[in-house]
Amino acid sequence: MKKALLLLVAFAATVSAQITTDLASIPADWTKVTEMEDGPAVYQTCDGGNLRLKLYKEKGKWYLLCYGQQEDYLFEVKKASGTKKIVLDGVWDGSKEKQQFTFSWTDKAKGLGIWEAKGWDWDFAFVTLWDEVNYPHIAQPCMECWEEECEGMEDYYDPIDRIRAIFSNYVHDGESTDGNENKTKMAKALDELKGKKLSQTDLQLLINVWMYYDPTDFDTAIKKSKALLVANRTESVTAIKYMIAHKREWESADSAPYSELPLLLVELEGKK
Q1: Cα 188 versus chain centre, distance
Q2: How many angstroms separate the CA atoms of 172 and 42, rounded?
Q3: Low-confidence winner among 18-22, 27-31, 106-110, 220-224 (lowest mean pLDDT)
Q4: Chain center to CA of 226
Q5: Are 121 and 60 in contact (CB under 8 A)?
Q6: Which of 46, 40, 31 is nearest to 140 (CA)?
Q7: Prediction pTM value
């Protein structure tokens, strides 16, 4: 029994030793950035969406999820090494087929990095989900893919993706106003989230909407986003604490709306 226990400990040590890079130091969520005529943007194609990545740990194992397009691909990371250029050796989830990825920062201050996949035509620039708001969101017109079948197609896009696009463009443009169409779409997408289970990244987006999406004479998004935060109180508390601990360079603890985060935290922690 003692010998078996020692072998188990040795095996666990060997597995952990194969991941010699601190994967937790790499941001978890990434969005592909496409170079457009007017500069880089988050580009949503009408037939393939836009590639996103999620690096996460679950039950002691690391995974890389590729999603946002027509199919999702999940890989278990078996090995990881490197400093400036990090190599992740993984296998397709549920099989032994190998796949290697590499990651390197191109501009860490702006949240930009390169993810590559060995053997694939896959060498893309990505931006962290946290810094995605610094880039315009462009959706390829549906008519370029589907012609007369486009009516109602917007409803097939995830409401979180619609909220993120409207919010990111509003912040990127730096205006105090937004079009009535966008305001209506924002309100509708927020309504569609009622009763749904929201992730930490979803809630962080809603907190940003609550703080920064404030077109003149339009407080609907502020009220609706706060209602969703209250409805997901326990998870929202965690998301607010994260945002307080990861203040952006331009945010100030002494200036609204960022200075109101601790007050929102106290309010939600006090609700039963």
Answers
A1: 21
A2: 12
A3: 18-22
A4: 20
A5: no
A6: 46
A7: 0.70
What's the pLDDT band for 39 if we cut at 50, 70, 90? confident
Rounded CA gap, 240 and 232, in Å? 12
Return the exposure string of 234-256: e unless at least 16 CB atoms fall within 10 Å of the residue's CB, then b: ebbbebbeebeeeeeeebeeeee
- Whether 167 and 212 have beta carbons less than 8 Å apart is answered as yes
pLDDT tens digits, one per residue of 218-261: 899 999 999 999 999 999 999 999 888 877 777 888 888 888 99
Neighbours of 95 (CB within 10 A): 9
b/e map of 108-123 (b: 16 or more CB within 10 Å)? eeebbbebebeeeeee
Query: Across residues 97-123, what is the average pLDDT?
Result: 91
Residue 10: the pLDDT is 38
H helix count then E strand count, the chain:
8, 10
- Distance CA(238)–CA(253), nearest Å, equals 18
What is the CB-side half-sphere exposure of residue 98 using CA atoms within 13 A? 7
